[in-house]
Amino acid sequence: MVEIDTTNLDLKKKIILERWGSILKQEMITRVPKEYGTMAASIESNQEGNSVSVGTKGTPYALFVEYGTGSMTKAHGPHLPEAPVTEWAALRKRNEVGQGQTMPFARSSDFSTEEERLNVLKEAFR
Predict the structure, then answer these.
(1) How many alpha carbons lie under 13 Å from residue 80 in its C-beta half-sphere?
(2) What distance in Å separates the CA atoms of residue 113 and residue 126, rounded to the nearest whole number?
(3) Where are the alpha helices (DSSP H) in the chain?
(4) In the predicted model, what is the mean pLDDT of residues 24-50?
(5) Which of 3, 13, 113, 123 has its CA 20 to 30 A from that of 91?
(6) Contact residues for 30 (Cβ-Cβ < 8 A; gap 6+)
(7) pTM
């Protein structure tokens, strides 16, 4: 019987998940509306086991910013309008978008290029 010590692999996995969580957290912070900065400051990344989660903590209104209120959901269905936060901010300043409009920051955040994900893996295994 052959035994393989996976301690090093487990450590690499933890490093990779923490790095991916950090990248996604920074992306969300970049996209979140920052009228007071409370929501941006509440974004955290948690790695546990084989997964990493990134989201807000202590800001229950973040859900409404991301998905809108009941009236927005009814009007647009599950596919709410999406636009970069900077566009929404500009529209709000010109009063072209009401306060009830969505400003997605979590669903639109992703370090989605395969190259970027592979670079994190390469760094971990150097």
Answers:
(1) 23
(2) 21
(3) 7-31, 38-42, 62-67, 70-76, 85-93, 114-124
(4) 88
(5) 113
(6) 109
(7) 0.66
